[in-house]
Amino acid sequence: MSAAVPSSRTSRPARIRKIGYWGLSWLGLAAAAAAWQLASGMAGSTIFPGFGTTVSRAWQLIDGPELTRDLIPSILRTLAGFAISAVLGITLGLVTGYYRAAREWTSAVFDFLRSLPTPLLIPVALVIFGLGGKMVVAVIVTAAVWPVLINTANATSALEPTLVDTARILGLRGPAFMGRVVLPAVSPQIFAGLRVALSVSLAVMVVSEILGGGSGIGYFIANAQQSFAITDSYAGVIILCLLGWAFDTLFLFVERRLLAWQHGTVGGEPHV
Amino acid sequence: MPSAELRFGRGQAPDPAGAAPGGPLPAPRIAPARGHWRSAGRSVGGVVVAIAVWELVSVSGLVTNQAMAGVGETASAIGAHAGTLVTAAGGTLKAWAVGIAIAIAAGVVIGSLVGRSRVAEAFTEGLVRMMRPLPSLALIPVAILVAGLGLTMTAGLVAFTSFWPIFINTRYGVRQVDNLLMDTGRTLGLHGPRLLLKVVMPAAAPLIASGIQVAISLALVVTVSVELVGGTGGLGTLVLQAQQGNAVPMMYAGIIVGGFIGWGLNIGFASLVRRTLPWSNRLESA
Amino acid sequence: MSEAVLSVRHIGVTIGGRDGSVTEVTADVDLELAPHEFVCIVGPSGSGKTTLLRACSGLRAPTRGEVRFAGQPVEGVVPGISVVFQEYNKSLFPWLSIGKNVAMGARRLPSRERAREVEEALRRVGLDGFASRYPWELSGGMQQRAALARALVSDPQVLMMDEPFASVDALTRSHLEDVVAELWERSSFSALLVTHDVAEAVYLADRVLVLSERPSRVLAEIVVDLPRPRSQRQTRLLPEFAELEAQVLERVEEAGRAGGTLT
């Protein structure tokens, strides 16, 4: 593994190719928006409002009172659920990844629990927590903890033996070993799991709110559907799309800074 | 909606006799051939403990009676209403199956065609990036407005949602097939569609399978969500109605059945992959 | 006769596989390391050289026998024994800069001294100025030098190396051999180096131990009395060098003839 100090200049043809790639992807988006507009024209705006109409309504919503009433609670719930899932998932993942006994004891139970379709738990959560934020956050955690836990456990159980030996020779033990060696070593994969957990948090937040949020974007969308406010419900979807994109972008930004030492494939993987 | 690789367990653990941080080294244990039995035994033990904890929580009143049903009550509910449960499960599975079938067909076909052309790939990239963060569950109310309630809407939404992970993985899988492999195929006289079929697709198969695995769970989640929101039948509606009617054991019965279905689908697909793609090591779901 | 720094008596290591198989990797190995001595261990591949090293360094408890370091029995990792592994890219912590990596080896020192010792260690291996770089920015040879710096910054009494130059190219390899030799000359630590390269073993060692095939024991001990300090160009051209190398090779071939591959 010989690596010379890397050059930071990309060659000209490579850059042109890159620009072309970006240009084409925006073209694709534009084409999709145009197709939408066309379909709306054909199908009639009662079930398919125009692209422009929807976007302007979405903007209205962001600007208006719905911001504090719906947008902010949704964001907070998503982040709270995500944070709890992260802590829980990483801790459990480290333990089950490192200690084979723990992994064996929990494997069947965890496999079952993570395969369980989370929305089925919403009615139970409704009874326990009632409507509102606590219910949403609880349901988010039951879903979002799994990608974090699984990724952490997998990475920890596949820890490079040489790395472990080195750490032991250097006298690292117990919490110092876990915190200063294991955790950084598996952090790339933890981040991969966290990224997924974030999008899971958003999705589960929506469906929980639809069923019993009391407030929030999901609640807003459900209301819009029940009062046949078509544009509103599309606008809500667009807002969620933007929210998801914003979360993901912010996450990648943070990841790139924290994992700068990884120098290679950080985030942005084109596949699932 | 992207999801993590669904692998759990089966990594290479570091040498257990030497890896416990701190403390003197025990003498290395000579693991008997019973090693496999011990691990299986522990998994079962874990299940027993989990069930015991469940019963304990229910009995102790930690969670109100209205929200909690014990193991026994749930089991008898399952027994007493087996027929209803089976019908509901069948309804869920039907919508799921239709949706996932469409998604797989469309995702693999379109994905491989797009993956072969860098232009097409670039063209779709923007759309993919927009679609990835979209929580497809948010589309449920919209879908209800647009398409009403019924199998078409449910299967359609399931298909739309599950399409993306399959499409993305197929597109990427096809693109990253080693050029060396393709050249080898060409020298063996394979061109065009035959090259695609005999070299590219098998090479991309592990990634495609991984995408399908994600889509399978995703499709189930969407199906159940539609049932919960729209009341169209199936397990989701069953659980919701049980909750509204205060039939708590039935609620748990529905959840347990749903869990087994999800579990079964995951294990089933994983073992299918293991058998048809033995060289694939990306899927190690128990 | 000064007391041995490291004393390994009749150790045997038996490893159990997860499928129930039981392998006796090391049968009966005896070795002693005197203060400031350089000992190399060679043997055919599969002779359990790495297992032996892990047992001697406290990473793994031997099934039989005893390892003593500075008179005390070794029951786990002990300060005073440092190890350099073959795969530097799996040993250096990729999330830390070179300087911080080396500092990890000096954790037991108070922080004021630590910075100074780290700087000194990097200078001794020729990496001064690279403290803020990351491992991936360095070539293989430089990374292994960083690993050496990390191993030596704590001023150990014994430095063990497990095929440390097997992952670099031949030119870098000669250079690194000299780096180690020089570091050893200037310090007081004893070195135990495992290698499959016979010439390298003769070049560096005071004594070469030849390990048999698995289950391994020490087949032969060859004393290398070549003059020090040694240099690649001069020492390797000495007729004595070739003789010693031939002697060792012969023993290694004997060891390998019982079956299995010769390195």
* Largest interface (CB < 8 Å): A-B, 98 and 98 residues
The H/E string of chain C reads EEEHEEEHHHHEHEHEEHH
Which regions of chain C contain 5 or more consecutive residues with pLDDT less than 50? 259-263
Q: Runs of chain B with pLDDT <50, length 5+?
A: 1-32, 282-286
Helical fraction of chain C equals 25-40%
Overview of this structure, please?
The complex is a heterotrimer of chains A (272), B (286) and C (263). Chain A has ten helices and no strands. Mean pLDDT of chain A is 85; it is low at 1-7 and 264-272. Chain A is 79% helix and 0% strand. Chain B has eleven helices and no strands. In chain B, helix 3 packs across helix 11 and helix 4 (82-115) packs antiparallel against helix 9 (192-230). Chain B is globular, with a radius of gyration of 23 Å. Chain C has 263 residues and is of the alpha/beta class. Chain C contains nine helices and ten strands. In chain C, helix 3 (98-104) packs parallel to helix 5 (140-152), helix 5 packs parallel to helix 6 and helix 7 packs across helix 9. Chain C is globular. Mean pLDDT of chain C is 89; it is low at 259-263. Chains in contact: A-B, A-C, B-C. Chains A and B meet through helix 1, helix 4, helix 5, helix 6 and helix 7 of A and helix 1, helix 2, helix 5, helix 6 and helix 7 of B.
